[in-house]
Every structure is written in structure tokens, then in C-alpha cells.
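Project outcomes to date are best conveyed with an example. Our students and postdoctoral researchers have been running inverse folding experiments weekly, and each run begins with a structure described purely in C-alpha cells. The record below, which covers 152 residues, was selected by the lab manager from last quarter's runs and is presented without edits.
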């Protein structure tokens, strides 16, 4: 089980990346010491509830979005699957060994594989259907299906 400190750290880092903000910007806006903030994002300490509320307001999210395990949305999973398919397609000789060597070093991908196995069956089916669809499109030389999921 992942600790509360790690969950908080991962979520803060996710929203910083998602909103394209730096630690310095957050610390300045919220009048938080950089050492304190650094301890939060490095899972060394856990913010008090008033600081959690300030962070949630800053990111325009709920407090639960910061303190609960955040599962990736479908688009994130699809991007990671596309990456895995690209890696698989790049393998020419001894495909299985090379592929598994590459993905085992991709910690983010391995995390998503772990998340995939923890999903409800109906969502797993959607992911599997997408993989099959993508593989068929790639096999037929058609463009990647991830383009269908881009906002625009």
C-alpha cells in the first residue's frame, strides 16, 4: 500500500505538471516555505489540512484530488499503450526479449500496467479493445488511432 505522503507527493507533482507551474510559483502564491513544499513533493512530510485546502484551491481541484490515489484517465492509458506499441514495432530480432527488456526499464509504463490490472473489468475491456484496434490499424499501415482521441 502506498503511503499518504507518497500519494500527496505524486498528486502535487501531477497537478504541477498538468498546470505547468513550478514549485517556486506555488510557494510564492501561497506563501509557503520552499523547504516545506520540497518535503511535501519528496514525501518527507504531509501538509496540514489548511495547506491541503490552499493547494486544492490553487489548482482548482478538490482536496480529495490531492489526498486520494489518482488513477489515470483513459487518454493517459491510451498514450502509454501507443508508446508500448511503438516500442514493440521497433523490435526486429528476438522481439519478445528486446521488448520486455525495454518496457521493464520504463517505470511509468510498468506503473500503468499495474493500474490496468487493478481496473474494473468493463474498463479493462475498453483498453483491450483499443489495443486490438490499434494493432490492426498498424498492421494494415493505417495511421495511429491516438489521433482520434486528440482534442480539437
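After processing, the design step wrote out the following sequence:
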Amino acid at each position: 500500500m502506498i503511503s499518504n505522503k507518497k500519494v500527496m507527493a505524486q498528486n502535487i507533482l501531477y497537478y504541477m505538471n498538468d498546470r505547468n507551474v513550478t514549485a517556486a510559483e506555488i510557494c510564492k502564491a501561497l506563501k509557503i516555505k520552499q523547504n516545506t513544499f520540497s518535503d511535501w513533493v519528496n514525501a518527507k512530510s504531509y501538509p496540514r489540512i489548511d495547506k491541503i485546502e490552499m493547494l486544492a484551491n490553487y489548482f482548482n481541484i478538490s482536496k480529495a484530488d490531492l489526498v486520494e490515489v489518482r488513477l489515470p484517465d483513459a487518454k493517459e492509458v491510451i498514450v502509454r499503450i501507443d508508446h508500448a506499441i511503438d516500442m514493440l514495432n521497433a523490435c526486429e530480432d528476438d522481439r519478445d526479449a528486446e521488448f520486455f527488456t525495454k518496457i521493464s526499464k520504463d517505470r511509468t509504463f510498468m506503473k500503468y500496467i499495474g493500474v490496468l490490472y487493478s481496473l474494473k473489468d468493463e474498463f479493462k475491456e475498453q483498453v483491450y479493445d483499443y489495443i486490438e484496434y490499434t494493432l490492426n490499424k498498424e498492421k494494415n499501415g493505417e495511421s495511429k488511432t491516438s489521433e482520434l482521441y486528440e482534442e480539437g
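The radius of gyration is 19 Å. The chain is about 70% helix and 0% strand. The training component of this project remains on track.
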